Amino acid sequence: EAQVTQNPRYLITVTGKKLTVTCSQNMNHEYMSWYRQDPGLGLRQIYYSMNVEVTDKGDVPEGYKVSRKEKRNFPLILESPSPNQTSLYFCASRAQGMDYGYTFGSGTRLTVV
Amino acid sequence: DQQVKQNSPSLSVQEGRISILNCDYTNSMFDYFLWYKKYPAEGPTFLISISSIKDKNEDGRFTVFLNKSAKHLSLHIVPSQPGDSAVYFCAARRSQGNLIFGKGTKLSVKP
Known about the structure:
The complex is a heterodimer. By secondary structure, chain A is mainly β. Chain A has no helices and eleven strands. Helices cover 0% and strands 55% of the residues of chain B. The N and C termini of chain B lie far apart (38 Å). The interface between A and B is medium-sized, with 28 and 24 residues.
């Protein structure tokens, strides 16, 4: 089944403790992206990647890092999480030239206390 | 500055009637527009899209209209069904294929 898989689905952590949210897609897509969803703010892009070793900042990159060492994986790294990073995170992927946009994962709900 | 705006946070419609969800944008360089549907506890799923060179695209009960001069698009759902109750996000594609999303409109279809 073609899908984008995120792990974990839920995570509660403490301020300052480094964490990684994994994202993997099995569709051989070139583009991958991370979004966060917050009440009243919709979906905002954190980082995106156009292919292996090619990443760039989205609209809200502060406090996040990403890497794209393999085509299928695009982990999101929070080196020192803070409470304002409490949010619902979505990973997404799409093929180059695909006009119907991204396929999204099921989301990771992160709480930083 | 918000480039994609959905000014109605919520919309309530009776089953069988038409649902109209609106979206405005400010960047004339957007070349593709998409609608996504999101249920609670799930990721957004693609619904329908339209290229900037068209003014209408239809897929079953869903039709998207684009008015480039007004920088406005709308999603029509006819007839509306209770299973259509969800949050609908409008999105516009910019360079490098990235999407900018609106804040979403929560549609409630009442039986």
